[in-house]
Amino acid sequence: MAAALIKFHEAVPTIHDNAESHFGGFANLSGVLSNIGPALRSSGLVVTQLPEDINGQPGLRTTLLHASGEHVSAVMLLPINNGKNYTHEWGKAVTYARRYALLSVLNLCIGIVDNDGDADDEKPAPKVEHQQSTAIPGIPPEENKLLTEEVDELITQIKDLSDGKKQDITTAFCFAFKHSEVKLTRARISRRKHQTWIQDWLKAHA
Question: pTM of the full predicted structure?
């Protein structure tokens, strides 16, 4: 499979943004699939993505298979908003998860560099001429950054949760802010939007 993946990376074109969202441009699921499909087939690879329960919770299993039968597989939890239409919310979560699971299993990144804003707060973002703002509208940039004591308070509240809820909020937070690694670090809790999200989650799961 390693040789096939090398061949795949030699053949796959750069994936560019092809859609727009509130936070700027992104490559949607159809855009990703249309770019990787020919390179997968020519390399003898195929990806399957199927729903799978995780301890009674909805999940998605992504499997990368080679023509030889060799494969790698992993399952991820699907954080679903408590909306009125569960099927609609489930569909959104699956579509979102499929896109990121595909990029992860194939070790790909949109446009080569990370363009998702929050994908890795631990590393300094590259300077771009027209960088998309991630600030909360109406609040000056300097006020969007959390104070140390505010971060400490949020971390204390998370630490006070049960082990199960700690895992749930970590998974949901990383999913919401597009972190590829499911890990909730101090560096990732740095802005007003992070504070608002955590507070809303804690209220909803009290």
Answer: 0.49
